[in-house]
Write a structure and sequence with these properties.
heterodimer, A: mainly alpha, B: mainly alpha, 4 helices, 0% strand
Chain lengths: 122, 148
């Protein structure tokens, strides 16, 4: 059982973003503002998580797994929403919203792995 | 049912394969390209001698996903054929590695993208080549429509 509140906040942000993106896919024929903003919220969470991780790790909550693997996941996770946003808006259609919906799904899985690495649970 | 999502280009052709639904197909391939590359890079950098065969296959999978992603995102007919080749290789890879890892698990590290037909990735690696081939077929080159 993961007790880190950051993980559960991130899960909630990803879940909310997924719902918003899927609703946008069902109702709009272009990338919806709400869908884009929800993916931006996921990116913002990742920034806060990253800064929080630096502070917490400096304060003694060491990564039990490989630190470079932890930061590899975190940095890749930070790039993904930007790449998906760029790819989604280059061809404006209903499917742009589904491309954006792929972000919270993928990032939830990555957040889960990040949490596992931090806790040393392999 | 059939809605006009992109009025400027609604018909299917090799040049339209990265539009509409194809946007999502390229996205999913891209996600697998990144994760397979990261996984293969990590395995080869840290523990290649433990299971050289499995980790070499990890690297092959990563290259196949990268080529499929980039080729699928292109417009030309030549890269359409390249995409077909990459996706067929992907299909053969996931079926072969999946089967070997089930039949002879002792010879196979379980942590490659294609082990047990991609179970560690929600079996998406098994479904993806079929989706890719169906999408490529829908956007296949047609003699009459080749005047784009």
């Amino acid at each position: 059982m993961i007790t880190d509140p950051f993980f559960w906040i991130g899960t909630a942000v990803c879940a909310a973003s997924l719902v918003v993106c899927l609703v946008a896919a069902a109702t709009k024929r272009y990338p919806g503002d709400a869908a884009i903003l929800s993916v931006a919220a996921v990116e913002l969470f990742l920034l806060v998580f990253g800064i929080g991780a630096i502070v917490r790790q400096a304060g003694g909550e060491a990564v039990r797994g490989e630190p470079w693997e932890f930061w590899g996941y975190e940095l890749t996770a930070l790039v993904l929403p930007i790449a998906a946003f760029w790819w989604a808006i280059l061809d404006k259609s209903r499917w742009s919203n589904v491309v954006l919906a792929a972000v919270p799904i993928t990032l939830f899985v990555m957040l889960f792995r990040i949490e596992q690495i931090w806790n040393g649970a392999y | 049912m059939a809605e006009n999502n992109a009025p400027q280009n609604t018909d299917h052709s090799p040049s339209a394969r990265s539009r509409g639904l194809g946007r999502l197909v390229v996205t999913v391939y891209g996600i697998f390209a990144i994760s397979a590359t990261a996984r293969a890079g990590y395995q080869i950098a840290t523990k290649f001698t433990e299971a050289p065969l499995a980790y070499t296959l990890s690297a092959v999978a990563a290259v196949v996903y990268i080529v499929a992603t980039v080729a699928m995102a292109r417009r030309s007919v030549a890269t359409w054929y390249l995409t077909v080749g990459a996706v067929l290789l992907e299909l053969v890879g996931v079926l072969a590695v999946g089967t070997f890892s089930v039949v002879a698990p002792q010879d196979f590290a379980q942590d490659t993208v294609w082990s047990v037909y991609g179970r560690g990735y929600g079996f998406v690696p098994l479904v993806l080549p079929f989706v890719g081939l169906a999408w490529l077929y829908a956007n296949r080159p047609r003699a009459a429509a080749g005047s784009r």
